Amino acid sequence: MKRYRIAVLGNGPVGILAALHAARQGHGPVLLLAADPPASIDAEGGGYRIEAVPVSMLALLLEYGIHPHLIGAGQTHAVRQIQWDSQSCMSVPTPRTVHIHRPALEQALWQKLLQEPRIHLHLGEQSLQLHDVGVDSINGDNPNNWHADLLIDASGRAARTASSIDKSQQPWVARLYTLANNTRHPNPVRSHFQPHFKLAALPEGYVYSLATPEVQNVVFVGRGKAVKGSAKELQKLLQDTQAEWVLQGLPQLTEFHSGMARPVSLQWAASARSVLIGDAALARDILSSQGLSCGLSEALCVADLGTPQARANFQQRQKQQRQLHATALLIQIRSCLYGMEAAWQDYAQFIMRART
Ligand SMILES: Cc1cc2nc3c(=O)[nH]c(=O)nc-3n(C[C@H](O)[C@H](O)[C@H](O)COP(=O)(O)OP(=O)(O)OC[C@H]3O[C@@H](n4cnc5c(N)ncnc54)[C@H](O)[C@@H]3O)c2cc1C
Fold first, then answer.
1. How many other CB atoms are found less than 10 A from the CB of residue 41?
2. How far is the centre of ligand 1, averaged over its atoms, from the C-alpha of 156 (Å)?
3. Which of 56, 165, 241, 252 is the one with CA 20 to 30 A from 158?
């Protein structure tokens, strides 16, 4: 039976960085358990997501050989335009961020992983036998059976090894609208892209837009009317709520590709027999634009979690992070123009549980 000190479950950015980091720290070979390789990049399809991240994250990725140009990072942003506590739009200074191509980040990390001989990759759905903290594979008499002293669960919102998951009964979802610059097109749309982050509150959620020179995203988040309906209906919703400026200068929403709705509201989980990191531990509301960078920071801690005391301290810090995030969200809801609407109030009730 093969023995590992660390096994990582999940090949999202957090899981891959955790495995790369642990391998670099000289913890012997690290096992990475991945359900599937990342999907191939389709910038013109509906799922091409842009994420806003702190500029400092680029330095971290560069340390792992991922150059900013590989992930679409260019212009930095220090101002957001928001319509939140009233129907007027304001420019608000923010810590400097950069917009990156999320599928490109997944591919770049995946390539680094494949080049790292100290990481052993097992693909496909895994049958696991969890112990106090360690884990064994369950494969009958298979000679590829393995044991790991520590299981790091970075399986995202699935939180595969969690003993409890707290999520809202009516999770808010994001509907992503994407427009890619098509260089083959006789009249490229690129010049219309609006790179700055724009955000407007809606009665049952919010809408934001952001872009890189190659891709424009418009994202509707919430429940009910804020995310259901056709592109025309959503555009009408923006007119009715005087939030149409978010689309100003852009082609009609009907020209965008529409992606699948995905849950994006707050969720957290606990596990006594594994260490949860990234979204598996705390999936932040995307309103904060912090999920990716906070998850990657946690990935850099996994090599130091060898003792029960270190794990207890780590989990205590995660709890504090959850409470801080919940408090920040509640402040944002309180100041929201629509904060007294039922959808926002229901969500606020749920978020309060994250402060305990
Ligand atoms: C629409 C949208 C917009 C966002 N915008 C931003 C933003 O602007 N800024 C920001 O910082 N964050 C943003 N986020 C949040 C950010 O994407 C997440 O915080 C980040 O992806 C967390 O990474 P992760 O690796 O923990 O989880 P994930 O990215 O979810 O990765 C989990 C991985 O685990 C794998 N997996 C699941 N189950 C199993 C299993 N049983 N076995 C093996 N593997 C498994 C999955 O296939 C996946 O590859 C956004 C999220 C969404 C949905």
1. 14
2. 5
3. 56
Instruction: Record the pTM.
Output: 0.96
* Helix 291-299 and helix 56-63, axial crossing angle in degrees, nearest 10: 40
Contact between residue 338 and residue 203 where contact means Cβ atoms under 8 Å apart: yes
| Mutation pick for ligand 1 pocket among 178, 279, 318 (CB with most ligand atoms within 8 Å) | 279
What number does the ligand 1 atom closest to the CA of 264 have?
A: 53
| Residues 266, 322 contacting (CB under 8 angstroms) | no
Q: How far apart are CA 285 and CA 326, in angstroms?
A: 9
Integer distance in angstroms from the first to the last C-alpha of the chain? 42
pLDDT digits (tens, 9 = 90+) for 303-353: 999 999 999 999 999 999 999 999 999 999 999 999 999 999 999 999 999
Q: How far does the centroid of ligand 1 lie from the alpha carbon of residue 176, in Å?
A: 15
User: Looking at ligand 1, which atom is closest to the CA of residue 11?
Assistant: 49
C-beta separation of 159 from 167 below 8 A: no
Number of the ligand 1 atom closest to the C-alpha atom of 291: 19
pLDDT tens digits along 187-231: 556 567 888 999 999 999 999 999 999 999 999 999 999 999 999
Separation CA 275–CA 347 (nearest Å):
27
